[in-house]
Amino acid sequence: MITTQFGARAQEKSTIPPDPEIRRILEQRVDVEKQSLGIVVGVIDTNGRRIVPYGHFGTNDARKVDGDTIFEIGSITKVFTALALADMVEKGEVSLDDPVAKYLPTNVTMPQRDGKTITLRELAVHMSGLPRLPDNLAPKNQDDPYADYTVEQLYSFLSGYKLPRDIGSVFEYSNLGFGLLGHALAARTGTDYEGLIAHRITKPLRMDSTGITLSPALEARFTPGHDQSLQSVPAWQLPTLGGAGALRSSTNDMLIFLEAAMAKRETPLKAAFALSEATRRDLGGDDAPQMGLGWMITKVGDDEMIWHNGGTGGYRSFMGFLVKAKVGVVALSNTSNEIGVDDIGRHLLDPTAKLVEAPKVRVAVTVDPALYDLYVGRYQLAPNFILAVTREGDRLMVQATGQPQIEVFPESDREFFYKVVDAQISFETGSDGKAKRLTLHQNGADMPAERIE
Question: Euclidean distance between the first and final Cα of the chain, in Å?
């Protein structure tokens, strides 16, 4: 039996803004800033739970989003994957320090370094040494980048990869790592990833609107996803790396999960939630973020925010709560936009966290495409992160390590901008006119990258 601890009581003042103020924020984001077509916010506070929706399924689909509308939740899936791990640890089925290789076929060679092998714990805190994505991920369809990545390709990558650093030494966010974690746990239990999550989490919590494969009834509530131009895009399929981001859910279901995470709901997963939140790795100094099992943990005054966000080709998501204040927020959007719902979720939990302003409207100008030849090359942002600039006819393309190739558009002879994210690139040239470095401008930071041979 699952029960909620919310009973009838006099209304108490919440630290989270009232519904009309939340609705005003959503109206601004959807109607004025055009950063989404539909957003649903769920709130948990001292008075219980509430839903504030705004917007529609699509430009030409007048159905209104609500608490039962289903969205892709993207990387919030990682919290589910880590919770399944914690549940299996609590039940003695695995240990956090088990080698991942223990749950893979014997013909797969897991990367090692200095005699140490990657464990389940290191996958769950992004400290395995594995990259964000495998270098043999080469999608046929960039709009659905994981759909054709196979288990055989995963095993091939693992067997040939050389770790660039000591295991457990550096935090590096890894979709590959969490996809592998979900795969290994499913193998341990003799099921697939979807079955693992259903058996361990969604069925015990009675989250009837959460899964990967949707029934016809759930499909009818699944809002289409949209890109930054508000155009409809395909839903993502992650047959091999599902543990990184395959789940779909509704705001009402996500509030069930969040209540359980906040210990406001008695569930069979109470011990697993506690383990996933208490098992931590420091990512820096005293006030630096920490990494739980799947959860991000940051300081907010004398409180802690435990949270995760997500994004796929057509959706953005946020889930988080404050430990001491005992308030939580879920925010789901049917548009994949740099300015989506992360800032809304943080602002509702912490009013000092400002809402992000809509990006400047940038207009492409006409330049001679022959100019692009001066910029073609490889530019190193970090030891394992390269921006490869190429010319494709009259288009200038940029591809970051492990990411798809994206067109950039000229604002001037040396300044270019992305349309898919709020980011810009400027080139610095030498006496011969060729670029010797570029600078990536994103999230308020200016990141120079030297040209390399």
Answer: 63
DSSP state of 29: I
Question: Helix 77-90 and helix 270-278: axis angle, to 10°?
Answer: 110
Structure confidence by residue, pLDDT tens digits, 30-45? 999 999 999 999 999 9
Cα(237)–Cα(251) distance, integer angstroms: 21
288-323 pLDDT per residue, tens:
789 999 999 999 999 999 999 999 999 999 999 999
The Cα 390–Cα 266 span in angstroms is 55
Q: Which amino acid is at 261?
A: A
Structure tokens that stand for 63 in this block:
């159905």
Whole-prediction pTM: 0.82
Topology classification of domain 71-349: Beta-lactamase (3.40.710)
| The amino acid at 212 | I
With bands split at pLDDT 50, 70 and 90, how would you rate the model's confidence at 402? confident
∠ CA 303-277-127, nearest 5°, is: 110
Buried residues in 191-223 as b, exposed as e (16+ CB within 10 A): ebbbebbbebbbebbebebbbbebeeebeebbb
Compute φ and ψ for 182, nearest 5 degrees. -60, -40
Distances (CA, A) of 17 to 52, 140, 207: 11, 45, 27
Of residues 363 and 236, the one with the higher pLDDT is 236
The structural domains of the chain, with segments of one domain joined by +, span 71-349, 369-452
Q: Which residues contact 264 (CB under 8 A, 6 or more apart)?
A: 4, 5, 6, 44, 326
CATH for 369-452 is 2.40.128.50
Helices 77-90 and 175-189: crossing angle in degrees, nearest 10, is 40
